[in-house]
Automatic annotation (TrEMBL):
It comes from the Eukaryota. Keywords: ATP-binding, Calcium, Cell membrane, Cell projection, Cilium, Flagellum, Host cell membrane, Host membrane, Kinase, Lipoprotein, Membrane, Metal-binding, Myristate, Nucleotide-binding, Palmitate, Repeat, Serine/threonine-protein kinase, Transferase. The keyword Zinc does not apply. It catalyses: L-threonyl-[protein] + ATP = O-phospho-L-threonyl-[protein] + ADP + H(+); L-seryl-[protein] + ATP = O-phospho-L-seryl-[protein] + ADP + H(+). Pfam families: EF-hand_7, Pkinase. It comes from Effrenium voratum. Monomer. This is Calcium-dependent protein kinase 1. The lineage of its organism: Eukaryota, Sar, Alveolata, Dinophyceae, Suessiales.
Length: 506
């Protein structure tokens, strides 16, 4: 696993919406998803009970199930032995990329721990097993099932490419199902970013990375771009529909020789019942010349996916959807940040309805919402009058100031109050701010978590933090304890000296 070619100090910030959007930049003072994924130095066993039984094992270490001691949330913990790790910097880059990712089809990283022997990644638990195992079990899938899976895979890749990240190791082993449910009711997540890297558009990558069956010919030549991921998508789609890969051999070198030539065929015996549309899309993805190969956006818009994958026929909005969005506007920055953390930590069952709404509103499927998409979605949902303050609502929901609404920003702004006023849920958010674990949030801790750039210490930032502290610090002792934090979450924030009497009942 070599370093990432083309990776340098001026690597781009995450990309924006489609090609017409400016790059997605987080404004100064904005709340970004990555800043709440904390790197802890404390002992992981003080916070989690780790299962003895391993869920999986690899050259890097192992994965086990773990339970958060205070919130009882069940997670997956990946333990990586530092002595086994050949390249610590490379691994830190993997964590940095995982922190950036905020998409329904990409595994969530919640936090990490480090001790003298290991690094621990605390991630969401996907209990449905690998896509690879489902292929082995079923031999191959129906076209509808394959289209459901390909739509999810390509949406995640579209989002990654918009954020200038190339995955470089797409294969069925790197996708997990959320549950044991049938494909039609399930959800797929990309799980491994060990070979991923940031890229600069039009600047080729050269590190040879990937897995023989799925790797693109240009990667073998050491001169490629992010469209190598779409080649891998083509191979995965081929496998889903017939059960074996297009480039096959008894040894790695035989497989790679076939990949270099790029010749494949559809054996009539296995493909006679597969539609011409499906074969056409595979041909577009397995184009030898990357200039002719489909992008993620083109693949998502292809007839086969549009016709075979079930469409979100109408966006189902809860009756209080716009009110929740509007209510989010009036919250102070600390409560918005806390809602962001809570939204990021809820499990898939708890956010399923909102996730479906988000994906229904996200018309082009890149995992970001533009004002136009939100407006169109509200109209489709039968909202007679579009709120006149929609633009303002959008700007306030867009916590990082990037001009588009990210997945977790959307969840944070639309969460139902009943979901976020529970003490155990709020405790996990409180812990993110209480960096030293003394049960209080100090001015310095607020500053540490809420400022994107610790190097920028402007007076406005300092003044705003002081103002925020005063607003929530009910007893005026200069720190925020958990009770005061809960009062803020349940109400609209406490003014000094007003105590709890002024708060609405939970």
């Amino acid at each position: 696993m070599g370093g990432c070619a083309g990776k340098n100090a001026d690597a781009p910030k995450p990309g924006g919406k489609a090609s017409t959007m400016p790059k997605k930049e987080i404004k100064e003072g904005g709340i970004g998803h990555a800043q709440f994924i904390i790197e802890n130095t404390g002992k992981i066993t003080d916070y989690y009970t780790l299962d003895k039984k391993k869920l999986g094992e690899g050259s890097y270490g192992s994965v086990c199930k773990a339970t958060n001691i205070s919130t009882k949330a069940i997670r997956a913990v990946k333990t990586i032995s530092k002595s086994q790790m050949k390249n610590l910097e490379r691994f830190k880059q993997e964590i940095a990329i995982m922190k950036m990712m905020d998409h329904p089809n990409i595994i969530k990283l919640f936090e990490s721990f480090e001790d003298h022997r290991n690094i621990y990644l605390v991630m969401e638990l996907c209990s449905g097993g690998e896509l690879f195992d489902r292929i082995i079990e079923s031999g191959h899938f129906s076209e509808v099932q394959a289209a459901i899976l390909m739509q999810q895979i390509i949406r995640a890749i579209y989002y990654m490419h918009e954020n200038h990240v190339c995955h470089r190791d797409l294969k069925p082993e790197n996708f997990l199902f959320m549950t044991k449910d049938p494909i039609e009711k399930n959800f797929l997540k990309i799980i491994d970013f060990g070979l991923s890297c940031k890229f600069i558009p039009a600047k080729p990558l050269s590190t040879k990375a990937g897995t023989p069956y799925y790797v693109a010919p240009q990667v073998l030549a050491g001169n490629y771009d992010q469209l190598s991921d779409l080649w891998s998508c083509g191979v995965i789609m081929y496998v889903l529909l017939c059960g074996y890969p297009p480039f096959f051999g008894d040894t790695d070198s035989e497989v790679l020789a076939k990949v270099r030539l790029g010749n494949f065929s559809f054996n009539p015996a296995d493909w006679k019942n597969v539609s011409e549309d499906a074969k056409t899309l595979i041909r577009h993805l397995l184009k030898m010349n990357p200039k002719d190969r489909y992008t993620a956006e083109q693949a998502l818009n292809h007839e086969w996916i549009k016709n075979k994958a079930p469409k979100a026929s109408s966006v189902a909005l809860q009756s209080n959807f716009v009110d929740n969005l509007r209510g989010f506007r009036s919250q102070n920055k600390l409560k918005k940040a806390a809602l962001h953390i809570i939204a990021g930590q809820l499990n898939e069952d708890q956010i399923k309805a909102l996730r479906d709404t988000f994906m229904g509103l996200d018309k082009n499927g890149d995992g970001l919402l533009t004002p136009a998409e939100l407006k169109e979605g509200l109209q489709k949902a039968g909202l007679k009058e579009i709120p006149p303050d929609l633009q303002q609502i959008m700007e306030d929901v867009d916590a990082d100031g990037s001009g588009v609404i990210d997945y977790t920003e959307f969840l944070a702004a639309t969460l139902d109050r009943r979901q976020y006023i529970q003490e155990d849920v709020c405790w996990s958010a409180f812990r993110v701010f209480d960096r030293n674990g003394d049960g209080k949030i100090s001015q310095d801790e607020l500053k540490m978590v809420l400022s994107n750039d610790q190097a920028v210490e402007d007076t406005l930032g300092h003044g705003m933090i002081m103002e925020l502290l005063k607003e929530v610090d009910g007893n005026g002792d200069g720190v925020i304890d958990f009770q005061e934090f809960m009062q803020m979450m349940r109400g609209a924030g406490v003014k000094p000296g007003m105590g709890a009497a002024n708060q609405p009942l939970a």
